[in-house]
Amino acid sequence: MLYPLIRRLLFTLDAETAHAIGMAGVDxxxxxxxxxxxxxxxxxCPVDVMGLRFxxxxxxxxxxxxxxxxxxxxxxxxxGFIEIGTITPRPQAGNPKPRLFRIPQAQGLVNRxxxxxxxxxxxxxxxRAAEFPKRGGILGINIGKNATTPIEKAADDYLICLxxxxxxxxxxxxNISSPNTKNLRQLQKDAALDDLLLQLKSRQExxxxxxxxxxxxxxxxxxxxxxxQITGIADALRRHRMDGVIATNTTLSRTGVDGLPNxxxxxGLSGAPLLQRATDVVKKxxxxxxxxxxxxxxxxxxxxxxAAEKIRAGASLVQFYSGFIYRGPDLVSEVAAALAPLIGExx
Length: 347
Fold this sequence. Notes:
By secondary structure, this protein is an alpha/beta fold. The protein has a single domain (2-346), classed as Aldolase class I (TIM Barrel), CATH 3.20.20. The protein is 39% helix and 16% strand. The protein contains eleven helices and 13 strands. The chain has helices at residues 2-10, 15-31, 71-75, 120-129, 154-165, 190-211, 227-239, 275-289, 304-313, 322-327, 330-346; strands at residues 47-49, 52-54, 58-60, 81-87, 100-103, 108-111, 138-143, 171-175, 217-221, 244-247, 268-271, 295-298, 317-320. Helix 7 (227-239) links the parallel strand 9 and strand 10.
């Protein structure tokens, strides 16, 4: 019952200010040993995906901890894995504020953050200072391109980030689907996608030899795709032997929130209104991939039933962000408990 009171207070503040205060609170609870006040015990449910052993299939999606400043505090809440970023080669301020908006009537969020982050070197310093990776915790690092990098040079930015984070990541997520960086989603198209994946996989092979360890690569895609685009992406994932796909990012659609306050704000919509659209993409991807590439299902998960839908649609793991804002740490234990029997059936 504690988190709803905290949320009520935080929701009286600007969304981005509230986020900063909330993350400071997570850090405080971790440092003081009081994380258990908000976090319930999480059901153990080991699952093997992308060559990694996850203690449970419940992950934190990228975006909540862009610079990896709160890894240990978030890990204390029971997540089976944490994804930080999106990170870019150079620091950038992102889009002008305000750029994060709540739609509480629909349990939605609209953001147009624009990959605001302190740069890859800052993120790596934070990762290396954290205990979670040292203890074997699974840490995904989500990489993107700087806004000032021309789209035809985008691969250069991804390769810079890949080189730098490779040996500090459990897996690397390649974000080509944010709607808030100009022209970024063009990289999901056939020729551009082929070229990017070819370069990334070639570099991955060289880095694996250099470091003596193989770090999986997962592609993060948009929910706003036609069926033929989903099939084309699935073909590219198989052809280039990608290790995973994260479905999905935020949507430009406003279905389910039309007419509500803040629904008209520019940016990507997440939260409950995204659930069906994102789950449909998981289902179509799963059919097209036929089990050859594992899927991480993300988008609209607000309870255990929503997460179970992702698994039944074909996902092997799930992630959430907006659900965490609305439901708090209880959502981690609830989703883990709901997925344990389903994961057991699959294994």
